[in-house]
Amino acid sequence: MRPFVRLGSTVGVLALVIAASACTKKEETPAGGASALTAAQVKVALVPGGAHPYFQPWKDAGGKAKTDFAFGDVTFNETAGWDQTKQNDVLTSLAAQGYNAFGIFGVAPESINSTFENLKKQGFHVGSLASCPAGDKNLADFCLSTDVQEAAYKAAKAAVEAMGGQGNLVHLTGNKVDSNTQRRIAGVSKAVDETGGKVKLLDTITDIDKDLQTAQKAVADLLAAKGSQVNAIVTTAYNPAVAAAGGVKQAKLPIKVIAIDDDPTIIAGIKAGEVAATVLQNPVGQAYVGSYALVKLSEGCTMATPGVIIDSGSFVVTTANVATYDADRQAKTDSLKSDFDSKYLTCAK
Amino acid sequence: MKQEDTTPEQPPPARLPLWANPRIGLVVLLIALIALFTTLRPAFLNTQLTLVPMQADISVYAVVGLSQLAVLSLGHMNMAVGRMAAMSAFASGLLHDRLDAPLILALAGGLAMGALLGALAGLIIAHTGVNSFVVTLALDFALIGLVSLLYATFTDGVAFNGLPAGMSALRTDTFADYCAGDVCGPEIPLLAPIALIAVLVVGLLFRWSRTGREVLMAGSNAKAAQLSGIPVRLRTIQAHALSGLLAGLAGFLLSANNGSFSAGVGDGFLLPSFLAPVLGGTLLVGGAVSVLGTVLGTAITQVIYKGLNLLQFQVDELKLYIGLVLLAALSLDRVRHVLAERRGVPA
């Protein structure tokens, strides 16, 4: 390197070091957007972690919430592509477009608190929907989600019952490096442990909720390799549930399938007696009541317990209640809304 | 950056006109895209919500691009770039979690892990002669399992709780938060200078250092390089170690940006790692790299992504338009290249 360049760089670095050492951190100013808004000024963004059938009811539920609670606007954006960095990008872009209240299903529960913190720092209200952050801290205003460990426990209990209290069980689920999957695995293990060894967890197959094809291939492989040994399959993710219901029906094996959610093929399977049970979640309630709470917070209400975790409900559906389950779910949604009014929110009269 | 011999009979090479310089083309394209998106959505110039997060993303993905560039210089590939980042983030997290290591030590541990993994890949490639694609793909598969196992063993889930002191500031602060008297710094995130140092070091390495030039020679023609006395095996290992080290740095920057050392770090690195260098003019066959081009390629990709996000395209449209804009960008560069060739200007 030329001597002048070397001299110049040294002087430059020295100047930077001297300037940096004279710096002090500016005091934090309180978030600017925290002042109360009117309902018409509230723009709610519902942002799932990526495209997935589970979230499709959010679109209509958000639209219904907008009509019922007369707030400014609602959008549904599923472009995050299951990448936390992209989801952060989507969220800041929506904020730049004027959206000021966010209902978020975080891609990475272990780092979503940082995203919530960033948004709240800018004065926005945030609800964690359908999934809570990992660990014991939730930095969103509230988390309205299925208690996934409890739902998986209920599903596994239903499976144990369907297989007559003994035999071999297989668990099909989603992304292994996701703390929600770890909670589901723990829920299933708990139910299996309670049988005192009568039910054996033959296999836990993860990472097959990416799309239906992946799940179908995994189910076909499982049935080909161990089909005769398996007495029941419990699924705690959407695509594996659809794939297991279809795969077992096609293979004509006497395996009891406990599904999750209410894809039309699963509900049809329950009606036909091919699927033993399914555990329903409440995506409509999450988006509808979540939007309501965000509007109330924007209008100046506060959370009685900031970061409170609220179970949005899970329901075991069998042939006995397949015709009436939606009424139960609607009732849960209504009770969630009144709970927000009476318990979770503190509003000035 | 290929050095070309000129014989006495040849006329001196024509001075490169500005329009024929590929980097200038990329700058023009970048400015045009920024102007386009700003016209369509003035919020594109929102400092807090657009410009600062975009700079942080560019910082992370420029280093991801450099990580791939380090082995593209040899005509090799690193398919394990994401998983090397994940392993580095794990090493940093473990050092902090178990030994309470401060930020600098956690970073150093992560970089060492990345460099070691890269060197291992380089060692296998150099000594077995197996294609780098195959070796790094196999390494990637092995590391997917290992990362998952390690997190399951050492954490209660898929991430370490807690970060070294100062790491949160890297995510949340800009230089504007630091003032000397009334004079505060610019709205540039604290991550940016770390990436800038990586860019400068890699740039200087390939431009000025003997090692860097020899790596390029080995990439251009390994046999000729070997016959000229260049230790090709050693250079292969070094280039892969550099790639691993940069992947580790990218993993650290992403962990800082997203707020945790987690198993998911690096999941989305593979495609951007190729996109930025290739868009910036680095050859897939080796022998020529463009560090500045890689930075510009990253910036263009992030600007397109941010702009399309602001236009609120839905998921399928977004992918379609990203593909179309990138195709248009590459085609424009090709047109510029052909025009330059016709006029006898090397571009």
TrEMBL record, chain A:
Domain Periplasmic binding protein: 46-300
One MF annotation (Gene Ontology) recorded for this entry: carbohydrate binding
CC annotations in GO: outer membrane-bounded periplasmic space
Main subcellular localisation: other
Keywords linked to the UniProt accession: Signal
Secretion signal, residue range per the UniProt entry: 1-22
Record carries keyword Amino-acid biosynthesis: no
InterPro entries noted in UniProt: Bact_Solute-Bind_Prot2, Peripla_BP_I, SBP_2_dom
Organism superkingdom: Bacteria
Residue ranges of the TM segments: none
UniProt entry tagged with the keyword Magnesium: no
Localization per record: Cell envelope
UniProt record similarity statement: Belongs to the bacterial solute-binding protein 2 family.
Name this protein carries in UniProt: Sugar ABC transporter substrate-binding protein
Organism phylogeny: Bacteria, Bacillati, Actinomycetota, Actinomycetes, Micromonosporales
From TrEMBL, chain B:
GO CC annotations on file: plasma membrane
Protein name as it appears in the record: Ribonucleotide-diphosphate reductase subunit alpha
Topology of this chain in the membrane: Multi-pass membrane protein
Source lineage: Bacteria, Bacillati, Actinomycetota, Actinomycetes, Micromonosporales
Subcellular location, record wording: Cell membrane
Keywords, comma-separated and alphabetical: Cell membrane, Membrane, Transmembrane, Transmembrane helix
InterPro entries from the UniProt entry: ABC_transp_permease
Extent of the signal sequence: none
Segments passing through the bilayer: 20-40, 60-81, 101-126, 133-154, 190-208, 237-254, 274-299
Transferase is among the record's keywords: no
GO MF annotation terms: transmembrane transporter activity
The organism's place on the tree of life at top rank: Bacteria
